[in-house]
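User: Please check token order:
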Amino acid sequence: MVTILGIAHMSWLTMFCSIFYVTFAHEQGLEGTSAENFSCVVYTVHISSMNCTWNAGRSAPKDTQCFLYLKYDNIEHNGEEIECPHYISNNLGRHVGCHFPKVTVNKDKVTLRVTGSSKESPIQISDHEVRLYKYEKLAPPQDITVNCDEQPLCKVEWKAPPSAIKAPHDYCFKYEIKKPKGETHECYPKGQKYILRLRAAGQYCTIAVGWSDWSQPIEFGTDPNPFPALPLLLVAFGTILIILFLIFIYKRFHIWELLVVKVPQPKDILWQNENMENVWVDPIPAGDEKITVVEDIGVSCKSNETSPSCSQLQAQIN
């Protein structure tokens, strides 16, 4: 009898625990519905801002919508909890990111909480306790300058990038200089051309240890064998423009016709004689000179003809 009662009590206890577990799990959300791949980056220029991204849980319903809250755990903020003011949504309208335009970065921990809602089932809450300075992404070194006045090397100088927690010493940062081929060195003799990029990272201090992005390329020095490609190109282009301008002026104002005088061609005497064979010109006598004009009347007389006309003509000629 005692054994039967013991078994009955165990059965009731097991059923009660099962009901409690299912009810508690339903209230807290099903396994695999919480946000995944959560990450944040803090950027500091004049003020510190933060971007966070995440993915919906692999078991979350399709209508799941996530929300992000930032809670400061220090006394200064009195446990203040702030919801993300600017969400980033995907094509389906789901929140997949958030932008905080201003955050307070110090050594204290904060809580980043991602909650969710769905009509189909509850969504698990995802809490992350972090120190925001560890999420900081440093900017490249600032105000990079090059001085080649000192002999015989060129000197490259820069300022430390801004950080959320002010660096008390110069050794809080480390730097890296990169040439196009990946070489790194510190000496830059004159007579050569250099293209460099710089980046920074924190060390020893309360600063993120991750490397910043590379700075914009810095070009300095001189090419040992410079080829004046640009000046030659400018000269050629200018020459072409001048030639086109002169051609336009010559054509517009007919300057070429004014500069070039036409030379008269010599007359063709033979051609003139052939064309003036039957042209009659009355000669002008010079002084007391007597000119006899012979007129060809178009009468031909053979030697054996004795007509009166031929006889008279021959007499006149003789």
Observations:
- The first strand starts at residue 36 and ends at 44.
- The first helix runs from residue 2 to 28.
